[in-house]
Amino acid sequence: MEKIIYTIDASGRTLGRVASEAASALMGKKTPQFTKNIVLPVSVTITNVKKLSLPERRLAGKSYVRYTGYPGGLKTTSLPEFITKKGLAEVIRKTVQGMIPHNKLRRARMKLLTITD
Q: Which CATH architecture describes the domain 4-54+87-115?
């Protein structure tokens, strides 16, 4: 089977719409050979990340939570702070990763995602 390449243009689109389209393509749901337990040779490229539409309500309301493992170690990061630290590409990567099933194929599918500015 030959490799299928999907290109998603993020300019003027919201974060969730771009991420759900990318997750669907990475899982292989857009191909006729879709099988749940196989990573298909599908490559997804997201372009024009800088032109992604993020409304003010999303910037104010979205936060990322992580736990260090120690007592009192619950850390929260707001979306604007996360963008300045890690970049907009990492926000998209984290969103797509949350939409892919949490199983052994997840890491292999995420390696097929490339994000360009």
A: Alpha-Beta Complex (3.90)
